[in-house]
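The freezer alarm interrupted the setup, so I double-checked each line after restarting. Inputs confirmed:
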Amino acid sequence: MARVPEAAVKRLPIYLRVLSDLAEEGAEVISSAELSRLTGLSSEQIRKDFVYFGVLGKRGVGYRIGHLCHRLRQLLGLEEEVRVALVGAGNLGTALARYNLMRQKEVRITAVFDRDWDKVGKKIEHLEILPMEDLERVIREQGIKMAIIAVPPSSAREVADALVEAGVKAILNFSPVKLDGRGKAYVKNIDLTMELEALAFYAGGREKG
Amino acid sequence: MARVPEAAVKRLPIYLRVLSDLAEEGAEVISSAELSRLTGLSSEQIRKDFVYFGVLGKRGVGYRIGHLCHRLRQLLGLEEEVRVALVGAGNLGTALARYNLMRQKEVRITAVFDRDWDKVGKKIEHLEILPMEDLERVIREQGIKMAIIAVPPSSAREVADALVEAGVKAILNFSPVKLDGRGKAYVKNIDLTMELEALAFYAGGREKG
DNA sequence: ATTTGTGAATTACTTCACAGCA
DNA sequence: TGCTGTGAAGTAATTCACAAAT
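Predicted 3D structure, all chains:
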């Protein structure tokens, strides 16, 4: 099992979703052609990805769904609950927390922090908002390896550094600054303002899809 | 000015943000090397992108910031206000609306729709939530070409079709279903649940960045 | 001297085409 | 025969390296 290309990692959750549904319906095997129909990805790509993931099928038959699900969960570390810290309990942070707590079981926000003492002590669903002073301690205690940043741009950099310092290995950053993990963590930046602007390019009538 | 590659379009808003700041500070020209420092992109890539955008610099000098900003705004259609429809006023939709209304002036949500009659008539900031029955009429009246979908997965497909039918050309879809524009609109899917899961792969200690 | 604009090389990803196994 | 696994070909995006312009 060689290195998994970034593009294939992005597809991992797509496979997992479709395959989990199939498993629940009781299906046992599936061909790359059928998965292609269900995911919209090409069957060759699916076969290549599965080789990256270290999963082999049976020629003439297909892939074992249970085995696939297990392997994908393993790769994503979902076999044990993945705990996530959220920093920033403004509109966006609160919505992300509610959204996550409702839907997701495996990757779950278990700690929320905010700098604003008016918010500290209040709750989002059942989770109490904690002060920044508790960040490092709580992250270490819970063994948290993932975090979401939803703070204003001015404090994003220092928050990211504090998270990395506390041992976080992967960060989803929604604040409109391009952050990096200083070589110690993987950072994915999602700038909603920019996404909207980029979309405007296509609304202008230049392209279709 | 040939076709602009998708990868370059994604960088357009990055350039615009940095350059707008520079323009406000009164700067007049900038080299690709300096922009590289400010954006984290390579200077060659910046020069290539600017050629795609149809912007030429002066050798030995650099690029005219005012000219660049104007051209980028033009490409993104930001010279006139870009109006956006939001469908779905749940947690996520409401947060997106608040977030957008606070920050963004050029690309702006000007209409919010929800299926739930309990929400219809209520307000997000100053915007009244409208019933789905008004969708097509309002979109046509306002000449809206962009939309955000933040509804449950079960109704996402029909909402997308209704939007395209009403003349929307670009959609940002936050519901966890892969939508396409049926050849008539550009659709960008952002599945936050999947983003979080994919991130878990990197939290597992396999990679850095 | 400085910085652009670009053809060539490189890298990353996808699709094609088919050999090989159940 | 059916479907996998893979080398080869193709496509897209990035980086290199340098000639041309001011």
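Quick read of the result. Residues 6-24 of chain B form the longest helix (19 residues).
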